[in-house]
UniProtKB/TrEMBL annotation:
The keyword Magnesium is annotated on this UniProt entry: no
GO biological process, one term: phosphorelay signal transduction system
One MF annotation (Gene Ontology) recorded for this entry: kinase activity
Protein name: GHKL domain-containing protein
Keyword Transmembrane helix included in the entry's annotation: yes
Protein's organism: Heliobacterium mobile
Length: 299
């Protein structure tokens, strides 16, 4: 985490230096314009239309070439500023994700003591079977939180923890299988939120239609064919006649004016990365699978 902070500070210094260079280039261009068009060796700076036309006729090609060079330099500096800003934003997002994970572990540590007290209470009441059931339920959720730490992508881990610990996710049984740590996943953090976040949110809302014991969501992270991806599965079924329509903009089976956007954005983001998006019914569950080629394999 300290390395991320140092990267942000370094980015700030680079942006400051690039901005100074860009401002310097603008100042030189303005000076040249004033000097060529409005400077006379006897009278100093003047604003004379005839003199401006004379200087333009005499030095026109030189002026245009020089100004063009400064414009190109200025544009290059702007491009560098943009690149540094994007890197700084990316680093900041990763740092925020790491903070969320650290905070979650602190909460788990505090909660663990509370759980022990509950278990101790069951034992003192001579209810060992209730204590055992309680331990099993807590152990599943605790192991899920530990699993996400094996992911190389902190933004993915942060999304999972946020969803699992939300009010909607507290009553859902999440099963996470990590067959790949997603270190080569070609999504940016914002794209990950759009794709994984929307798929998880839809799955959570869908399983809440069932009794709590049947609220199950499975998430599988995998790598194959020089790419990586994930599958989100939840109890339920999408009618076959609308399977091909759910990714269309504005199509929804929900009520509300903001519906019909999430899956459309998921589809557009996957297409942008030249990946594949599949959906199918099976084993009384709905499966959404996303696969993205590694960046090195993108044309």
């Amino acid at each position: 985490m300290q390395e991320k902070i140092k990267e942000i500070e370094k980015s700030k210094d680079e942006i400051k230096k690039l901005m100074q260079n860009a401002i310097g280039a603008i100042a030189v261009m303005l000076f040249m314009v004033i000097f060529v068009f409005g400077f006379d060796k006897n009278q100093g700076i003047i604003l004379n239309e005839n003199l401006s036309r004379l200087n333009l006729s005499k030095y026109g090609a030189y002026i245009i070439l020089t100004l063009l060079l400064f414009v190109l330099y200025f544009l290059e500096e702007i491009k560098k500023i943009q690149e540094v800003l994007m890197e700084a934003i990316e680093t900041t997002r990763q740092l925020e994700s790491a903070h969320k994970i650290v905070e979650m572990y602190r909460i788990n540590q505090h909660e663990f003591l509370n759980q022990l007290q509950v278990i101790s209470g069951f034992i003192q009441l001579n209810k060992p079977e209730m204590a055992l059931d309680y331990i099993k339920g807590y152990n599943i959720r605790f192991r899920n939180n530990l699993n996400v730490s094996h992911l190389a992508r902190m933004d993915v881990a942060a999304i999972l923890i946020t969803k699992m610990t939300s009010e909607l996710g507290e009553s859902i049984d999440f099963k996470i299988s990590i067959h790949d740590d997603l270190r080569h996943l070609a999504f940016t953090p914002s794209e990950t939120v759009t794709v994984l976040g929307n798929l998880l949110q839809n799955a959570m809302e869908e399983v809440h239609k069932f009794a709590e014991r049947n609220r199950k969501i499975e998430i599988d992270f995998f790598a194959k064919e020089k790419g990586s991806g994930f599958t989100v599965s939840n109890r339920g079924k999408i009618p076959e006649e609308i399977l091909t329509k759910i990714f269309e903009q504005g199509f929804t089976t929900k009520d509300g004016k903001n519906s019909g956007v999430g899956l459309f954005l998921v589809s557009k983001t996957v297409q942008k990365r030249k990946g594949t998006l599949r959906v199918w019914n099976g084993d009384n569950r709905v499966h959404f699978q996303v696969w993205i080629p590694d960046q090195s394999n993108e044309s």
